[in-house]
Amino acid sequence: MIWNKITDLSLINELSDEVQIGFGIGVSYFPLIGETKDGGKIYDVIRGEAKGVKWKYNNNEVLLLSQNRINMVYPSVNLQFVIVIYFSRSSEYKAPNNAVIFSANGNLLSILNPPPFQSTFLLQKLRSNRHDNPPLDLKYDGALFFDNVSWLKNNDEIVTAVRIIYDCEWYETVVYYPETGMFGECLDSGRL
């Protein structure tokens, strides 16, 4: 039994079906449940719309249900926070503020605001489009939103990282420190 760390993280659909997700470097997000005859992989994925998240902390179950579709959920590297990314059209957590941080016991801690872009690539794109950094004034669907959270290696350290989409086709992945609520350096950027 692991105390004081998030375990058994699952997505739940509108029918209360649940799929436990994997997390870590090189770990599949959805669990492998079999292989095809030709060696292809079969993964257990959430069917329908994910409307809830469940995990264990200090041997207690934490359950968060929402009226909004959940795109992705991932714990922080220290297993003390859960980052939930809602679909960008969410009515409760609208883009660009569609990433929400919860404490391990399920309390809402913060709703993320996209940080200014750092990569030379994205800065050039913003300048050529004459957009602010970050372009918070853009109101069309796909203009600016969070779409991914993961653990990545940064030098010799494993960090929590979030990916931000700009103008439907460009991205920047940055370090996020849920302990402080601060963003760190850019790890990657480019075209989707």
List the helices and strands and how they pair.
Elements: E1 7-13, E2 18-20, E3 32-35, E4 41-43, E5 50-57, E6 60-65, E7 70-75, E8 81-86, E9 99-103, E10 108-111, H1 120-129, E11 144-154, E12 157-166, E13 170-177, E14 182-191
Antiparallel strand pairs: 1-2, 1-5, 3-4, 5-6, 7-8, 8-9, 9-10, 11-12, 12-13, 13-14
Q: Calculate the terminal CA-CA distance, rounded to whole Å.
A: 40 Å
Total separate domains: 1
Number of helices: 1
- The averaged pLDDT comes out at 90
- Rounded to an integer in angstroms, the radius of gyration calculated over CA atoms is 17 Å
Report the β-strand fraction as a percent range: over 45%
Low-confidence stretches: none
Structural class: mainly beta
Please give the order of strands in the largest beta sheet.
2-1-5-6
Helix content: under 10%
N-to-C series of helices and strands: EEEEEEEEEEHEEEE
Largest sheet: 4 strands, antiparallel
> How many strand segments?
14
**CA-based shape:** globular
Question: Would you kindly provide a written description of the structure presented here, covering whatever features stand out?
Answer:
It contains 1 helix and 14 strands, in the order E-E-E-E-E-E-E-E-E-E-H-E-E-E-E. Strand 1 (7-13) and strand 2 (18-20) form a beta hairpin. It has 192 residues and is mainly β. The protein has one domain (7-191). The chain has one helix at 120-129, and strands spanning 7-13, 18-20, 32-35, 41-43, 50-57, 60-65, 70-75, 81-86, 99-103, 108-111, 144-154, 157-166, 170-177, 182-191. The longest helix has 10 residues, at 120-129. A 4-stranded antiparallel β-sheet has the order 2-1-5-6, with no helix packed on it.
